[in-house]
Amino acid sequence: LMTALVTGAMIAQARRRRIVRGRLGGEATLITSSGNTLRYRQRGMAERSGAVIIFEPGLLGTPEHGEWLVRDLITRWPVVTYRRAGCGASTYVGARRFSLDGSVQDLTDLVRHVGKDRPVILVGHSLGGYLCFLTAGRPSTGVRGVCLIDSSHPAELERSPSQAKGAERLEASMALISASLQLGWGALLTRTAAIDDLPLPERKVALAQYRDARLWRSGRREWSAARLHFREVDGKLPAIDVPLLIIAAEDTLTAFPVHEVLQQDFADHAAWAESHVIRDTSHAGIITDAASAGQVARLISEFTERLMADGDVAR
After folding, report:
1. How far is CA 209 from the centre of its chain?
2. Can you give the C-alpha Rg of the chain in angstroms?
3. In this structure, are residues 142 and 111 in contact, taking their beta carbons and an 8 Å threshold?
């Protein structure tokens, strides 16, 4: 019986890996300056001109988590999604110590590659928001504006004891789950509401990613790098010369009151900023819930329209 269980688990694991590493329609590959390989997907690039929106998921997030957002945005703007190095079919060469700066450089390379002579709007959720903010500070990227969706901030662990405790629990959980998944026990990992809220075609891929050990190894690597980076910068932000659209989830503001102060800190370090709160939604639900994502997409589209009409903010 045990042999049959182990065999079944290994077969299921192989099936998940085929899904995770499979090529979706419209996907292409970019080898970055660090040697990492990014799998990215362009939607609407040929049909629409103007600004290009690039979506950056959060820690342990995948492009599928932003699908509701993308579906709304694609009716007006070209959208690019991708998997960070080490996630899914995107590979991390591991030639040097992993750092957030490396992830920022990968995103910078992608911006220059897909944007070319078109303005780029970066949209990032959670840790992805902070990566977008840092990327906007790089010279000659063509980034016209940044949207932070319930973004991480480098001072969040220092300023919020509850978030610091949560970070410790998260690190321990990622280590345990990663080890379990390597043994082939992915089917035992309970699917989350965030996955069940996604459009039906994306659930299968998102669940396969969620139960794949590589995603959790990548998450552990990113989170360790993020915590080190937060300590090194001492919670301080660089100034950027592009506008910000800051969108927060009401549940996050309720659970972590300091979040509002930290989001204002982003605003204070940008060319200009506007802030909004999405009511009755959570940190994950702000992009995985169809109604909440629709509100976020409307704000992003209006923000982008405003930037395209204002030539003075061009970089």
Report:
1. 14
2. 19
3. yes
Q: What is the per-residue pLDDT for 75?
A: 93
Task: Answer yes or no: is pLDDT of 270 > 80.
Answer: yes
Spatial distance between the Cα atoms of 260 and 239, rounded to a whole number of angstroms: 19
d(CA 146, CA 127): 14
pLDDT above 70: residue 57: yes
Residue 2 binned pLDDT confidence (cut-offs 50, 70, 90): very low
Query: Two tokens at 146?
Result: 């940044």
CA distance between the termini of the chain: 64
Which parts of 1-47 fold into alpha helices (H)? Answer: 2-21
The strand pairing partners of 278, in sequence order, are 249
CA distances from 159 to 9, 234, 315 (A): 43, 11, 33
Sign of torsion over alpha carbons 226, 228, 234, 236: negative
In this prediction, residues 32-54 reach a mean pLDDT of 89
Is pLDDT larger for residue 78 or for residue 179?
A: 78
